[in-house]
């Protein structure tokens, strides 16, 4: 006899979209079940954002200590010998953080009254799903379904994951530092991890098919990152295709325009980060009658409702919004409220996107080019971190960062803010708030920013846009 | 290159100033000769002023709602060839000067495009997440809300005002809630003219009103007959041409009613001509086009001319002379019904006649209740110069003619 359950809300996937949806649904008094095959927390918490940021932080420490271990030290601090890395302990430390957050999510779900079921959900129809758990199958009938199945790393058919070909997930669990790491794909995941491993001591080579790494950002924003890749000795080969690995596990590649000319790079590990695709296979999406677009993303409206009544889709699997944890969370929160009868729509003006390379990149709202393309009369202003006192005290100016503001020339509304530089990710909140609140340049110009902080750079970039920055000429 | 300064032209006899209703060109715009540049409203008419030259707009004077004097420079152009001005006499508005300084101070400013301002309309409404959430819940399209904040930012109180304004959505809303806030509607353009004229009429004239009911059964028979047998191209007759014709007779008998009272000179000017103003509701507001010399027209001419002048008023093509010179005014209170009204006299006239709809009614004739077609009229008179008896008499004369329609034409 299969155990049967009924609920008002069934959430599939306990990532940053799903678990937020389930907590909010619970708060709203809806009987809620959330199904997760792995640990609650999802890609973001278990094998993406959080563990990679832990690794990046540790790698920074390692890199800083290495500077102090050189002849004469650094900033008056010297240590007698190079810091030693125990990779398995580093991974254990990282796992400790992940574990704490995972327990936190489970507790929050419980407190909100949402039931977490560990198992693999398989839909029989749009509202019925069979969950395979350790203790047997459970049949769940739901009034509303929230699909939050997320995304998975894209695999290259000629270099499948396994052995020394690893995904970002495996890279975060390596027990040893690879001497030679080849990164296939110079997007944000590849560069974040590539830089971290370079900081930890690997020789890193990045293979990128496009003419540049981080092609989604404009040249001005990319430039400080490209310079730092050079400084770190990371070799970047652009305009090349990866061609697989040879029998020794070395990476093969060829120039885009002469693909016969295959060359070899020595590699202990080959990290493939060529993007992520919607996780739309193996759980009965086809049986649900839910429509997807040609790229496999589920089609949703501004309330994240699919074509099937009572079936919603959020996060990476949904076609609306970029593949970002914070998109998924805000959609999850909204959908729970929609199901509870509130009138809501997912209508952000600006969603921040951050790349945790060294230096970091933040992009919120429209870039100058996008703003022009949208027909706005555009003015921009830029302020370098090198002119900010607090940045100097943290050596945040060393990576050549700046903050750039994009505004309308006629009414001065802020359309976008971009920043590149060490530690700039923590400034993203103010950029986003400014745009969401409909701030004009004069609103930011008239807001006193604390000294000495890096946030003063935003103030100054706004003043620069108005034509009267104080600390640059 | 030269500068061509253009003075506000004489736009009608005796008109010394006009109110800016709309500019058709922005500063920096390229215009061709005869392109419309400016709409100006005078006492009654709105006149579109065409560009005198080919050129680029250099300066503009006056915002919507401002009064411009005839003969003063209202716009200047940069033109090829010699201009008529050194440019000194048309100082740029202060805001323009300021803007220029700002632009010079900026490094990255791109060359300004003249059409820039219009594109704001396409931009997303500026509103915070809390405002957007509330608007979404209330079913309000933010694009339809006027923002009072900088750059048109929509605030919570703007949403209050929008709801107060009695929007269809608010009226149909799922819940009723107490509202607060006010919306200010500027009284400009035609509305200001109407307000001024009504104030003058009502504050100067001692109105008295007089109502009557007229049996138009026979008139209706005649009207139906004439309409059924009218020649091709002839207008369909409403009651109004008959009333106008009857008024010609009636006003001839009571000349004190077809008059202007010049209260400053203390003179009543009786008119020989009968020029009937026809109060006409248009999309832009109330206009009073005039059918002139009704005494010289037959019924059909009267109908055609009335059609012509009211059409001109409705489509905005009425010239100033079509909108002035009335000696007496008729206002149709008709279609919606109404038992009576107290129409306001069009100063300096001394009387006005309001016509209500005609409807079949039960009335007593020879001790029997019979069905007759009855029409109510409401009249107002300037009691300073028209005694009650005189005003009432005119209405009674009118009644006599309309109840025995053949006599109108004798």
Write out key terms for the chains shown.
heterodimer; A: 473 residues; alpha/beta; FAD/NAD(P)-binding domain; Enolase-like, domain 1; 5-stranded parallel sheet; 14 helices; 25% strand; B: 410 residues; alpha+beta; OB fold (Dihydrolipoamide Acetyltransferase, E2P); Dihydrolipoamide Transferase; Chloramphenicol Acetyltransferase; 7-stranded mixed sheet; 4-stranded antiparallel sheet
Structure commentary:
- Chain A is α/β, with parallel strands linked by helices and 473 residues long.
- Chain A has three domains: 3-50 and 90-153 and 277-339, FAD/NAD(P)-binding domain (3-Layer(bba) Sandwich); 165-274, FAD/NAD(P)-binding domain, CATH 3.50.50; 353-466, FAD/NAD-linked reductase, C-terminal dimerisation domain (Enolase-like, domain 1), CATH 3.30.390.30.
- Chain A has 14 helices and 22 strands.
- Chain A has helices at 18-27, 42-47, 49-68, 87-112, 168-171, 188-200, 219-231, 285-288, 325-339, 368-373, 389-393, 428-436, 441-445, 456-466; strands spanning 3-12, 32-36, 114-118, 120-125, 128-133, 136-147, 151-153, 165-166, 180-184, 203-208, 235-238, 240-245, 251-255, 263-265, 269-272, 276-278, 311-313, 353-355, 360-365, 378-384, 402-408, 414-421.
- In chain A, a hairpin with a 2-residue loop joins strand 4 (120-125) and strand 5.
- In chain A, helix 3 packs antiparallel against helix 4.
- Chain A is globular, with a radius of gyration of 24 Å.
- Chain B has 410 residues and is α+β, with helices and mostly antiparallel strands.
- Chain B folds into three domains: 2-118, Beta Barrel (OB fold (Dihydrolipoamide Acetyltransferase, E2P)); 124-171, E3-binding domain (Dihydrolipoamide Transferase), CATH 4.10.320; 191-409, Chloramphenicol acetyltransferase-like domain (Chloramphenicol Acetyltransferase, 2-Layer Sandwich), CATH 3.30.559.
- Chain B is built from nine helices and 17 strands.
- In chain B, strands 9, 12, 13, 14, 15, 16 and 17 form a seven-stranded mixed sheet that branches. A four-stranded antiparallel sheet of chain B has the order 1-8-6-3, with no helix packed on it. In chain B, strands 5-4-2-7 form a four-stranded antiparallel sheet, with no helix packed on it.
- In chain B, helix 7 packs across helix 8 and helix 7 crosses helix 9.
- The termini of chain B are far apart.
């Amino acid at each position: 006899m299969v155990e049967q359950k009924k609920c008002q809300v069934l959430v599939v996937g306990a990532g940053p979209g799903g678990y937020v949806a389930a907590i909010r649904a619970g708060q709203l008094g809806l009987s809620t079940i959330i199904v997760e095959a792995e640990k609650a927390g999802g890609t973001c918490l278990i094998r993406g954002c959080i563990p990679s940021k832990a690794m990046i932080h540790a790698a920074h420490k390692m890199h800083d200590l290495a500077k102090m271990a050189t002849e004469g030290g650094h900033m008056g601090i010297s240590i007698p010998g190079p810091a030693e890395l125990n990779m398995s302990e580093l991974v254990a430390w990282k796992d400790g953080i992940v574990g704490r957050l995972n327990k936190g999510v489970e507790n929050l779900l419980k407190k909100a009254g949402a039931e977490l079921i560990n198992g693999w959900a398989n839909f029989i129809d749009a509202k019925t799903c069979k969950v395979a758990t350790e203790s047997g199958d459970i049949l769940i009938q739901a009034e509303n379904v929230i699909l939050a199945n997320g995304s998975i790393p894209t695999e290259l058919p000629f270099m499948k994951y396994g052995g020394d070909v690893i995904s970002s997930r495996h890279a975060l669990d390596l027990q040893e530092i690879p001497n030679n790491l080849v990164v296939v794909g110079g997007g944000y995941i590849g560069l974040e991890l590539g830089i971290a491993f370079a900081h930890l001591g690997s020789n890193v080579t990045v293979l990128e098919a496009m003419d540049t790494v981080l092609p989604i950002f404009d040249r001005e924003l990319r430039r400080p990152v490209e310079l730092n890749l050079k400084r770190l000795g990371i070799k970047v080969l652009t305009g090349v295709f990866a061609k697989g690995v040879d029998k020794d596990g070395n990476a093969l590649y060829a120039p885009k325009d002469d693909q016969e000319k295959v060359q070899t790079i020595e590699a202990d590990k080959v990290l493939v980060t060529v993007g992520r695709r919607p996780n739309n296979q193996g759980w009965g999406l086809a049986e649900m009658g839910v429509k997807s677009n040609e790229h496999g993303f589920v089609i949703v409206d501004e309330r994240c409702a699919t074509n099937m009544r009572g079936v919603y889709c959020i996060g990476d699997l949904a076609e609306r919004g970029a593949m970002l944890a914070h998109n998924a969370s805000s959609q999850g929160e909204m959908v729970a409220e929609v199901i509870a009868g509130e009138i809501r729509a997912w209508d952000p003006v600006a969603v921040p996107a951050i790349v945790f390379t060294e230096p970091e990149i933040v992009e919120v709202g429209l870039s100058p080019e996008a703003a022009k393309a949208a027909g706005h009369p555009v003015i921009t202003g830029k302020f370098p971190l090198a002119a900010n006192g607090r940045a100097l005290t943290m050596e945040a100016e060393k990576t050549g960062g700046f903050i750039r503001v994009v505004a309308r020339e006629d009414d001065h509304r802020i359309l976008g803010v971009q920043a590149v530089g060490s530690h700039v990710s923590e400034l993203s909140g103010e950029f986003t708030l400014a745009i969401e609140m409909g701030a004009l340049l004069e609103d930011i110009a008239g807001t006193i920013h604390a000294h000495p902080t890096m946030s003063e750079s935003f103030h100054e970039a706004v003043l620069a846009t108005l034509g009267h920055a104080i600390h640059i000429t | 290159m030269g500068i061509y300064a253009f003075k506000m032209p004489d736009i009608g006899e005796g008109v010394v100033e006009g109110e800016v209703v709309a500019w058709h060109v922005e500063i920096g715009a390229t215009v061709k000769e005869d392109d419309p540049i400016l709409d100006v409203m005078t006492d009654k008419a709105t006149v579109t002023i065409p560009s005198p030259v080919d050129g680029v707009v250099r300066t503009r004077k006056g915002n919507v709602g401002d009064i411009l004097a005839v003969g003063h420079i209202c716009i200047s152009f940069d033109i090829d060839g010699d201009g008529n001005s050194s440019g000194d006499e048309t100082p740029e508005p202060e805001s323009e000067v300021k803007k220029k300084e700002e632009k010079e101070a900026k490094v990255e400013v791109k060359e300004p495009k003249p059409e820039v301002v219009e594109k704001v309309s396409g931009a997303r409404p500026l509103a915070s997440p809390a405002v957007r959430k509330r608007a979404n819940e209330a079913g309000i399209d933010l694009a339809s809300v006027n923002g009072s904040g900088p750059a048109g930012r929509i605030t919570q109180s703007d949403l209050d005002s929008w709801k107060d304004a009695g929007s269809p959505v608010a009226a149909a809303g799922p819940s009723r809630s107490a509202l607060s806030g006010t919306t200010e509607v500027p009284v400009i353009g035609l509305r200001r003219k109407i307000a001024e004229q009504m104030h003058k009429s009502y504050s100067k004239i001692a109105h008295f009103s007089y109502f009557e009911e007229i049996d138009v059964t026979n008139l209706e028979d005649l009207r139906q007959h004439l309409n059924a047998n009218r020649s091709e191209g002839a207008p369909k007759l409403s009651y109004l041409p008959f009333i106008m014709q009857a008024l010609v007779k009636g006003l001839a008998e009571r000349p004190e009613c077809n008059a202007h009272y010049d209260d400053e000179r203390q003179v009543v000017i009786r008119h020989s001509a009968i020029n009937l103003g026809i109060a006409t509701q248009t999309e832009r507001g109330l206009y009073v086009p005039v059918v002139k010399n009704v005494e010289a027209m037959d019924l059909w001419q009267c109908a055609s001319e009335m059609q012509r002048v009211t059409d001109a008023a409705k489509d905005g093509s009425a010239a100033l002379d079509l909108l002035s010179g009335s000696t007496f005014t008729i206002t149709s209170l008709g279609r919606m019904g109404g038992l009576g009204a107290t129409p306001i006299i069009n100063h300096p006239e001394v009387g006005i006649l309001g016509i209500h709809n005609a409807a079949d009614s039960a009335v007593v004739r020879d001790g029997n209740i019979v069905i007759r077609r009855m029409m109510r009229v409401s009249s107002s008179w300037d009691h300073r110069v028209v005694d009650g008896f005189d005003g009432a008499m005119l209405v009674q004369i009118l009644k006599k003619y309309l109840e025995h329609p053949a006599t109108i034409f004798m």
